[in-house]
Amino acid sequence: MSTEKILVTSALPYANGPIHLGHLSGAYLPADIYVRYQRLKGRDILFIGGSDEHGVPITISADKEHVSPKVIIDRYHELNKKAFEQFGMSFDIYSRTSLPIHHETSKEFFLEFYNRGILNKTKSLQFYDEKAKMFLPDRYVEGTCPNCGAEGARSDECENCGALYDPNSLKDPKSKITGQTPVLKETSHWFFPLGKYQEKLEKYVDEMNKKYGWKDNVLQYCRGWFKSGLQDRAVTRDLDWGIKVPVEGAEGKVLYVWFDAVLGYISATKELSIQLGKKDLWREYWQGKDTKYVAFIGKDNVVFHCIVFPAMLMAWNEGDKEKYILPQNVPANEFLNFEGKKFSKSRNWGIDVIDFLKLFPADSLRYALVSNLPETRDSDFQWKEFQARNNSELADILGNFINRTLTFVHKHFEGKVPQKVKLESIDEEMLKLIASYPAKVSALLERYKIKDSVQEVMNLARAANKYFNDSEPWKTVKADKEKCAATLYVSLQTIYTLAELLEPVIPFASGKIFKMLNAEKTLWDKCGEENLPAGHILNKPDILFVKIEDEVIEKQINSLGKAPGEEEKEDDSISIDDFLKAQLKVAKVISAENIPKSEKLLKLKVDLGNEERQIIAGIAKSYTPADILGKNVVIVANLKPAKLMGLESRGMVLAVETKDGKLNVLNVDDSVEKGARVR
User: Fold this and answer.
1) Number of other CB atoms surrounding residue 422 within 10 Å
2) How far apart are CA 254 and CA 238, in angstroms?
3) Any idea which of 165-174, 433-442, 580-589 has the lowest mean pLDDT?
4) pTM above the 0.85 mark?
């Protein structure tokens, strides 16, 4: 058995805002699919993630809100962690670079380089705000580009034309803090000699590519940097927020975020080791010769993960301490745009993950994104395409095949896997096909061809539908029941194979399929075998994917580019007469219970004083039956009866949705009579 360990990292997102769909396509979904696949292969793997919580973007967000940086990072770390969990990311740990263990690790690297004389202390001119009494980072200075004349250029770079220049070349510079014209003032910083490692880095990239086949886009980025010549990079900067530089004469200086952020992978693994009660476990992955390290990132991070971080590890490894491994592969993706444009919070162009998942299932999003991954060039998220992927592929191709197979078995074979007495060539061919698929999909995933691997699995679902149709079990069930049994036997084995092959992509739906099959996952290489024996009892089928209606998608398209809430303001005004049509009444909850197979719904019985009613309320994620029992709630009493999960509901409980997505049911004190009208 292989002793190889696999270490996977995904780029640490800045904790200064919510993650959006572009982030998922770049660094996170491909990594999660790869990790889930490797776990099904039975391999020893760790998946490391976390928040990048230092640097100027954090302080800018804090300044805008007039709060401390800690308020910002606490808010967005928790928000993004929750979004990742709801999306199905399977990190072994999602850590933070503000933790003491990360500060200690970063200082250890700095001091190692400092004490060995690797770092160069250099004086330079930097903008200084005399009114604020502070040196200004690049993003805190704006002016006119000396190259193209564009306004709003940063102190050393113009986003409009891409020009890089010396800060004293910027025209009409202004401090973003005070609006004053800053002065250039001398300061000192420590620099890492990146150029010294260029030859080693070129050799490293070339060797990794020859052995493991790096993506062409990644190689081109690296070669572009090498062609320009690597320059020394400052590892410190004048800033209050960050990891304090641990040497004398460095007051008011912190480690540059590019230096400490990549070390967050190491510190997070250390933290995980402590959580598992194995303090030095991290060394087996970061310093073990048998570890394969794969870094999943977006293209904007190529330089840091293919050049800067490897150079830092090379520098460490030149010392007399235990050596670190370098990335074996960095399968960076290009960018995902949104309806033809870049994501833009200020223009309300795009959608954050946490908001998307309030509207649609995580698996529908995972499948749509992976089907359009920007693996070799930028791609585009389109609402209509998302709808089509969900409706035509997940619901019609995959879901329909599973549902009609299981329904047929329950109707004609007592819900048990039929005997395979009479296999014909069409059945044998289908069994051979599913047996070939684990290796076929595995070959693509091992080469990081994530999108192609998913397309292959969906091709199997298409083949399964064709097989079912060609076999015509609705006819053979009457004319030749043994032949019908063979068709359903093979179809059930195919469903099992699809459930496992799709687990890395749509894990929630995969879990539902295995529950319907009343079966457990096996190892990846065995999932194409006949895993469901004849006579095995199946559970009742359930709908995997609900189709998304046109009006739901049109609403999302129409909201693009408008201020939040603007689309509702166009038609949300009602008259007093409209309001009075709703009969809001006080009701006491006299019984409450969970509904089987539903995570969201509770079955309530309420007392309105002169009658009792049953209401199905979507509050189960915020309230247990015990929490709501006995409360006086407000209901809409004159709603038309509706059926939910096959149960009649006569009314609606009113609740407030909090910022974290939980529901807070409106309560009325006991002095108010049951049935009283709310006006």
Assistant:
1) 16
2) 6
3) 165-174
4) no
